């Protein structure tokens, strides 16, 4: 298992922000996870996937952190669209692999820079009106929790919009998952991937580091007001993509200020909003 010391966590997040980790572990399999659990239990409080939904305090010195980008990076074909996929696999890679076999269903996630474990934890998907998320094709998830490996059926994971039961568990590690994807013509799957990337180019502001949507529930009008009055320096709301914060060499303090500003405005206008991004304070 690779172990690094005094690592800048900003290198592990798409928002390019974060303090340092005293030690960062890169487990590759269940044996590494068990070893860590016995010797470095504290590390389980800070689990990194692809770091694409994380805001990390830039002035905090974190102790032990686990990065799962090397965990079970494999895909096992069980036939008829059934796959066992490792938690450390990139979503784009998974889609390329299953589409290559003539199976699909999650091409709208082609633009999401996360790993499978993070996507299951967040129940990543499209906006709330589309009712499409990674759990649609999921059958079961294998998770390391309280020192034990457990396999949970989809029904036990309580998936809903950007929610999974893993968010309420104490330091779970998603090891792998079983999926059953649907059969589709390869040309159609390629078109679906291409149309996703075209849409993303048109609608999403990737000019600066970001973590996608800040809120999974928010009022569009309020978010548009915030975009129009947002400063262009440091951490600021994108003018192109409402609900996205961009990091132009900004600080954690600025990011928190912008998030709280949006939450306050929703409260004043009696609208509900729910934060999607995970914060390591
Ligand atoms: C450009 C861009 C576009 C995006 N588009 C979308 C989109 O279309 N739809 C969408 O839903 N999201 C989107 N996101 C947000 C983000 O990519 C997703 O939430 C993604 O699923 C997070 O995965 P990750 O591996 O990066 O998780 P991380 O950000 O590393 O972690 C997120 C949470 O999951 C936990 N976690 C990670 N891996 C595991 C594991 N194996 N076991 C247990 N817990 C784990 C972490 O501890 C953390 O609490 C976007 C982000 C960006 C930057």
Strand content: 25-35%
Kindly report how far apart the N and C termini lie: 27 Å
The structure class reads alpha+beta
The number of distinct helices, counting runs of at least 4 residues, comes to: 6
Q: Outline, from the CA principal axes?
A: globular
List unreliable stretches of 5+ residues.
none
Sheet bearing the most strands, described? 5 strands, antiparallel
Number of strands: 17
Helix content: 25-40%
Describe this structure in words.
The protein is an alpha+beta fold and 281 residues long. The chain folds into three domains: 2-67, Uridine Diphospho-n-acetylenolpyruvylglucosamine Reductase, domain 2; 75-202, 2-Layer Sandwich (Uridine Diphospho-n-acetylenolpyruvylglucosamine Reductase, domain 3), CATH 3.30.465.10; 205-280, UDP-N-acetylenolpyruvoylglucosamine reductase, C-terminal domain (Uridine Diphospho-n-acetylenolpyruvylglucosamine Reductase, domain 1, Alpha-Beta Complex), CATH 3.90.78. The chain is 26% helix and 28% strand. The chain contains six helices and 17 strands. It has a five-stranded antiparallel β-sheet, with helices on one face. The chain has a four-stranded mixed β-sheet with strand order 1-2-5-3, with no helix packed on it. The two termini are 27 Å apart. It binds flavin-adenine dinucleotide. Flavin-adenine dinucleotide is lined by residues 14, 47-54, 68, 87, 111-115, 117-119, 121-122, 124-125, 166, 172-174, 206, 210-212, 278.
């Amino acid at each position: 298992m690779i172990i690094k010391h005094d690592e800048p966590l900003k290198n592990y997040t798409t928002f390019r922000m974060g303090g340092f980790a005293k030690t960062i572990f890169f487990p590759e399999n269940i044996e590494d996870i068990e070893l860590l659990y016995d010797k470095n239990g504290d590390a389980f409080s800070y689990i990194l996937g692809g770091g694409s939904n994380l805001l990390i305090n830039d002035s905090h010195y974190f102790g032990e952190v686990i990065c799962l980008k090397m965990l079970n990076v494999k895909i096992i074909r069980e036939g008829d669209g059934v796959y066992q996929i490792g938690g450390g696999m990139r979503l784009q890679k998974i889609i390329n692999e299953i589409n290559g076999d003539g199976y699909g269903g999650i091409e709208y996630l082609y633009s999401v820079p996360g790993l499978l474990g993070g996507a299951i934890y967040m129940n990543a998907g499209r906006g709330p009106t589309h009712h499409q998320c990674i759990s649609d094709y999921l059958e079961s998830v294998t998770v390391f929790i309280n020192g034990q490996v457990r396999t949970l059926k989809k029904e036990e994971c309580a998936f809903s919009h950007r929610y999974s039961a893993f968010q309420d568990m104490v330091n779970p590690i998603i090891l792998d998952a079983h999926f059953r994807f649907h059969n589709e013509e390869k040309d159609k799957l390629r078109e679906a991937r291409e149309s996703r990337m075209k849409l993303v180019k048109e609608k999403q502001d990737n000019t600066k580091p970001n973590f996608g949507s800040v809120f999974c529930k928010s009022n569009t009008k309020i978010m548009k007001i915030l975009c129009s009055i947002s400063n262009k320096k440091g951490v600021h709301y994108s003018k192109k993509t409402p609900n996205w914060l961009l990091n132009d060499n900004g600080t954690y303090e600025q990011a928190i200020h912008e998030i709280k500003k949006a939450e306050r405005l929703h409260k004043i206008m009696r609208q509900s909003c729910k934060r999607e991004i995970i914060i390591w304070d």
